[in-house]
Amino acid sequence: MGTLNYTDLFDRAARISWNRRALVDDTGTMTYAEVSALGNRFAQALIAAGFAPSTRFASLSPNTSLALLAMLAGVRAGGAWCNINLRSAPAVNIDILRRGGGEALFFHSSVAKLIPDLERGVPTLRLVICVDQDVDGHPSLKSFAKGGTDGPVNVRLARDAVGFQGSTGGTTGAPKITQGTADFLSMNAIGFMFALPFDEPPVNLALAPITHAGASWRW
Question: How far does the chain reach from its first CA to its final CA, in angstroms?
Fold first, then answer.
């Protein structure tokens, strides 16, 4: 069993195409080198703030570059991504995070009005960070990342540690919490490499909410 994961795919892309565009949204463009540097600092800052392996984290944001960068950094820091959905009713997201023991939340300023109810409804939340700006006492991703360093982040989960936490669709009642191990993510990443080979660098157009459907890196 290999240990390849999605941060490894990104790191390989960053080594090969460091000056190539990695993320593009309405605010501009970030190269692989820029995403790697800021993402590493943010991951280091998360770890310094007590972000331990398998820390449950979620993102509540429209499709933006900084939201995806935050998700990548959370995985790099050893966290277990929880796929709440921006399009779900707030009460559903609160319920999923509460029952799943959510500990960290990355949100966009456009949904700041939802955060007070989330914080009240999910008592395990201890890190709440706005990806795009300082707002209502919550630091922005870039402000929080100042607590990190430029060194590499070397966090490896145990093979049976929780690397992903999701939920069912709720068609048979209340959504049920589901989990995937670090091995599951490794097999997923390896399968992606074999099943979807590319001869040219691809362009990924995100239409569904990336915080729910996820995204994959490829050089």
Answer: 23
